[in-house]
Amino acid sequence: MRITLITFTAAALSCSLFAQTQAVPPQKPTLESSLPSVAYALSLEDGKIAGAGALILETAISQADFVLLGEDHLTREIPRFAAAVCDAMGASGGFSALAFEASPAIANFVQESLRSPDRFGKMADLQKRYPDSAAFLGVRDENDLAAHCAAVSQRSGFRIWGLDQEFVGSAGWILERMLATEPGPTARAAILQLQAMERTDEEEARKTGDPSKLFLFAVPAAEIEKAAAALDKDGTPATRAAFRELTESREIYLGQGDKPSDSNAQRARLLKRNFLADYQAASGPGKPPRVLLKFGDWHLYKGINPLHQRDLGNFVAEFADGRNSTSLHIMVMGAKGTHAIYTGYGRPLKFEPFAMDQDEDYRWMKPAIAAQKAGSRTLYDLRKLRFKRLELGADWERVVYGYDLLVLIPELTPAGLDR
Predict the structure, then answer these.
(1) d(CA 236, CA 305)
(2) How far apart are CA 122 and CA 136, in angstroms?
């Protein structure tokens, strides 16, 4: 074929235009432009999930053996949402356990109180004797949530799991439990000596409100070592187990002062060990355990959390993968509202207003707050934002791949605090 000048010129022009077209890449979708397409209205009507996001949420729950709620603490609204999640789990095969960010001892205390007509009165009495010995489950809203979930679990042998360290004011209660294990005379004498120190420390902390005066912070390492040697002589296994809870909790608290990253890692390992021990204890013939976990949001990320730790959420995700099952990670937060703030040992909590997009750790939420549905909660299906080549930034990258769903509540109010 003969190539004429006109043919050559036309071909060259076509190639030039094609090259120019290819040189201008298509505009990438942004996070802000993408969020509205994955946002769904969600409401609670008479305690039941409703709205456009209800089917997405309920379907995801029905397909998961482990449902993880990463929350903002001490609110009224989030326990109500968690109760609706329990209802959904109960209706889709039932569940075996509810795991809290509390110690095993306080979870067992709540478990034993479930059938009591004065369930919360027993907790209030414990808190009067040993203030700040119960993390979260000492709050009525959380205590009521545990009772509700037990009632709708649809599985026999339902348990409340506490996976965390002992709370700051719990040393006196731990020592009391150690004496109840009936250790030998050497161990008993050592425990009584620690009790005397604990009472002195507690009196000082009560005067000042300073939790660092409490026994878990103030007891000298030499006294702990001396007591450990005495317990090795004639303490029972139960005595030594309670003492390990005390000493590891002490190490975690003290580590927050000089080695916070090591302390956070130690705490994460404790959560994982306790989860695995409880899971194995609940396993047996029949259906494998199905579990709801409710912790602060930083604990339940898949992958690396904002503290640069592989925390409980990552462990459960990997554990589920290894069992060929599914974990569902739901972050539940508020756009604004009022927080309950710890003010010191034995002191009433104070209330402070907040706006999440002004919080240094949560400013990343601003696009989600801007895109929320008017007049209701908003469910964001984060799974639909993955692998889209979006310019997410480090915080959103962590959230999109660390959580599956984000539930944003327009306004949070502080929990009813009975102290």
Answers:
(1) 38
(2) 15
Collapsing DSSP states into helix, strand and coil, what is residue 50?
Answer: strand
pTM above 0.70, yes or no: yes
Element (H, E) at 145: helix 140-152
Quote the Cα angle for 319-320-322, to 5°: 65
> Tell me: the pLDDT tens digits for 125-176?
999 999 999 999 999 999 999 999 999 999 999 999 999 999 999 999 999 9
| Contact assessment for residue 136 and residue 149, using Cβ atoms and an 8 Å cutoff | no
Token pair in block for residue 414: 């502080």
Q: How far is CA 313 from CA 149, 209, 346, in A?
A: 21, 33, 31
What DSSP letter does each residue of 102-117 carry, written as one string?
S-HHHHHHHHHHTT-T
| Digit-coded pLDDT (tens) for 175-188 | 999 999 999 999 99
Spell 114-151 as b/e; 16+ CB within 10 A means b.
eeeeebbeebeebbeebbbbbbbbbbbbbbbbbbbbbe
Largest Cα separation within the chain, whole Å, is 111
Residue 291, C-beta contacts closer than 8 angstroms, at least 6 positions apart: 65, 66, 67, 95, 96, 97, 98, 99, 161, 279
DSSP 389: -
Q: What is the DSSP string of 390-413?
A: ---HHHHHHHHHH-SEEEEEEEE-
For strand 66-71 and strand 48-50, is the pairing parallel, antiparallel, or unpaired?
A: unpaired
What is the C-alpha separation between 327 and 315, in angstroms, rounded? 10
Task: With CA atoms as reference, report the closest residue to 236 among 304, 175, 280, 183.
Answer: 183
